[in-house]
Design goal:
- This protein is an all-beta fold.
- It is about 0% helix and about 60% strand.
- The strands form two sheets. Strands 2, 4, 5, 6, 9, 10 and 11 form a seven-stranded mixed sheet that branches. Strands 1-3-8-7 form a four-stranded antiparallel sheet, with no helix packed on it.
- The chain is elongated and about 50 Å long.
């Protein structure tokens, strides 16, 4: 069983900053990709930013230059620094990881989600 525990989030004014953190624990051999997705009301869940085991990053064009992902391989944690926040960034943010749980088996795991609300 793999668990993801998120922290951070909350209410901030437009132009402000927030930092999300996520810790991965449980029965696994290794963690591959880690990242963050978000889902606004009435919308599909979308990728915000992710970082692979080789430190390659993928991100949504809408957050380019504003959000930065970082990862601690020793602690199996991932953080998302969000600057210059906009009202359209309002959503529930989910931590994600792909982990190897058996020699020949990987799985996708999610956190419970944390609300980020940006007021105008």
């Amino acid at each position: 069983q793999v668990q993801l525990v998120e922290s951070g989030g909350g209410l901030v004014q437009a132009g402000g900053s927030l930092r999300l953190s996520c810790a991965v624990s449980g029965s696994m051999i290794s963690v591959n990709t880690m990242g963050w997705y978000r889902q606004a009301p009435g919308e599909q869940r979308e990728l915000v930013e992710a970082i692979t085991g080789g430190d390659s990053t993928n991100y949504a064009d809408s957050v380019k230059g504003r959000f930065t992902i970082s990862r601690d391989y020793a602690e199996n944690t991932v953080a998302l620094q969000m600057n210059s926040l906009k009202p359209e960034d309002t959503a529930v943010y989910y931590c994600y990881c792909n982990a190897r749980v058996r020699i020949l088996r990987t799985g996708d795991f999610w956190g419970q989600g944390t609300q980020v609300t940006v007021s105008s």
